[in-house]
Amino acid sequence: VRVEVLAIGTELLLGQIVDTNSAVIGEELAKAGIDCTFQAKVGDNLERIVRAFELALERADAVIACGGLGPTQDDITREAIAAVMGVRLERDPVALDQLERFFSSRRTAMAEANLQQADVPVGATLIPQVQGTAPGLICPVGDRVIYALPGVPSEMAEMLTRAVIPDLQVRSGEPAVILSRTLRTVGISEARLSELVAPRLEALDAAGPGAPTMAFLATADGVKVRLTVKASDDATAIARLQGEEEAIRAILGEVVYGVDDETIETAVGALLQERGWTLAVAESFTGGLIAARVVEAPGASIFFRGGVVAYDEAVKFEVLGVPRGPVVTAEAAIAMADGVRALLGADVAVSTTGAAGPTGQEGHPPGTGFIATAIAGRATVAEEMRVSGSRLRVREYGALRAMQLLRQRLLAL
Amino acid sequence: VRVEVLAIGTELLLGQIVDTNSAVIGEELAKAGIDCTFQAKVGDNLERIVRAFELALERADAVIACGGLGPTQDDITREAIAAVMGVRLERDPVALDQLERFFSSRRTAMAEANLQQADVPVGATLIPQVQGTAPGLICPVGDRVIYALPGVPSEMAEMLTRAVIPDLQVRSGEPAVILSRTLRTVGISEARLSELVAPRLEALDAAGPGAPTMAFLATADGVKVRLTVKASDDATAIARLQGEEEAIRAILGEVVYGVDDETIETAVGALLQERGWTLAVAESFTGGLIAARVVEAPGASIFFRGGVVAYDEAVKFEVLGVPRGPVVTAEAAIAMADGVRALLGADVAVSTTGAAGPTGQEGHPPGTGFIATAIAGRATVAEEMRVSGSRLRVREYGALRAMQLLRQRLLAL
């Protein structure tokens, strides 16, 4: 079966809410091996919603709609579907009963407006609510089908996995899974990366259907390589992904630092744990961001001692023992890393000092920083960084770069 | 003019990335008073991209496309637009020159693959890049137009406001603005808030067109009240928003802590600066998140001394002077706040200690924490918090709650 997604709501078009529902639906469909080739957003306008449904049903076997099932005047998804089906709405006693029980269980009077949430196009099947007030609907249109789900993300996701995906799998008949795996890289450009793997990509293309496909994605965290396979079952798909990951790692080597949700902090944490080492951080312009990212890594409580956010220069001098004088320097970064390593009794430390902006500092333009890495028994080294953009961007880049430099040093030991 | 948005990329359909670009475009179009009635997502498939453009151009005067301008094989937006225009691609010398300068300024060799980013449909105009490598394109199709923008959000947003919106405003001729303002509240439920402002809402409804509209949005950061007005010019719109903000503030009082992008940290920073006070933080389970949020507040360098991330309990004992013993206690939180205030020489301090999960600590379930606030010359007080959810959610709630408690204490002085 081929499926399209229609997210309904003027607030989505106006950008007042980011439509995350379509992404969740796309992900679940992919996992179930169901093709989704088109997704759209439309506002709370009856005529345009009807047109959007009709258009989608010309191209696809099923449409999953989300939003517009609420109790207010601009919730018109039910009316639009009834129009597409060519039927009228009828108040459903089961839906009405559920609504009444929802409100009485909360000892709240049901508003008159909620009654319309029990209206159902004749011929449609209810998907009962388990969280909120709007039931979902399965609405046959000839040999095709519209699923209507609430716009509240948790309610939508629950009905999607409970009712919609199983119904689509029954309709599709052929079981298939699509699985993806993302290799995360650092320190290599997208273009260079695609050059390196081009021969492998050609081999995959030549191998024809069933072979993994590959996509590149440039992000603030580095370039990601996403491998995707379609197979008849999970085991086959996983085996193919595994083989392909090994082939790509053989080509790219150390620039691959992790897979899927593994962050650079996770990679650094693993290197530290191999040696039984602990980490401390001293942060000026990154302002706690490195620490906040490190504590998200699994096992952080084993290897992370903590840190000092030395935002005011007095804290650098008095707490970390940085010599009085300019603080946006390699020397200050080195003194901060050494100072925090000693203060917190850690084996390894990383530090940042610099000007995040909007103004410069000590004659340096905003976006200038120094990052130092200290390892017990080895010389502490600092590197200058330059980056343009907002304060937040400068900080995020600094936090990422600090971990990259630490990873490089740990790998080179 | 009527505009549609087309986000291009298989990763969007698969839900591997949430399409935030369309929301940003929708928001900017709304601000400029330009109608956007439909937005769609399509994968990296030439035939389907071409069909999506053709369909959109049947309904709308302009299409803003984002994504698919990169250097890899799956970046095919340029080809698709050339097909829609019925022209071929030609390598543009200006675009090529920009690309070469981009790489030489970074002392990096340009990969062969990047050359295709200088390919332009004959008849299209370049939107020069100022950040990355992919230029944007303005592509006339008869009396209609396609704008092609990069998928990288910061590059997209920059070109949108610099080149696309002004071009659309020239094409549209009739000036109108839609402006919004969001009042941020804390410590009040959505239902209670809507009860309080119900009379005001009725008055606005009765006032008819031109009056501001109001929407409520429950978020992790508290309930937000969004006011929106449409007017013929900025000055009129701003005056109406201003009047309405005052009316709502008069009803809600102190629960309103900020407007638009003002965070709770900004509000706390303003209260501290009124008194010329400085702030220090001691963080255990929030792991640097409070500090990272505080340094984003304007003027942080004036009022923020810094902090200690005391993740390991040894750091609590040795650096902050917490008495040895259990650390997930009100007493430990108080000792941490007092300790960091003394260590960093600040007037005010806040601390967090607790179990973020996935496991509990010292017999407390995950999501249990203690938050203390210390103010020079006053008793330091602690509060227990309980929240369910992921480690990140527990941390984010703790960071928010710490600032809420500090704001309450500062307001009550």
List keywords for this structure.
elongated; homodimer; alpha/beta; 413 residues; 6-stranded mixed sheet; 14 helices; 42% helix
Explain this structure to me?
The structure is a homodimer of 413-residue chains. The first copy, chain A, is of the alpha/beta class and 413 residues long. Chain A contains 14 helices and 17 strands. Chain A has a six-stranded mixed sheet, with helices on both faces. In chain A, strand 16 (368-375) and strand 17 (381-386) form a beta hairpin. Chain A is elongated, with a radius of gyration of 27 Å. The model of chain A has no long low-confidence stretch (mean pLDDT 92). Chains A and B meet through helix 1, helix 2, strand 2, helix 3 and strand 9 of A and helix 1, helix 2, strand 2, helix 3 and helix 10 of B. Strand 14 (304-310) of chain A pairs antiparallel with strand 14 (304-309) of chain B, so a sheet runs across the interface.
**Structural class label of chain A:** alpha/beta
Strand content bin of chain A = 25-35%
Biggest contact: A-B, 85 and 86 residues
Number of strands of chain A: 17
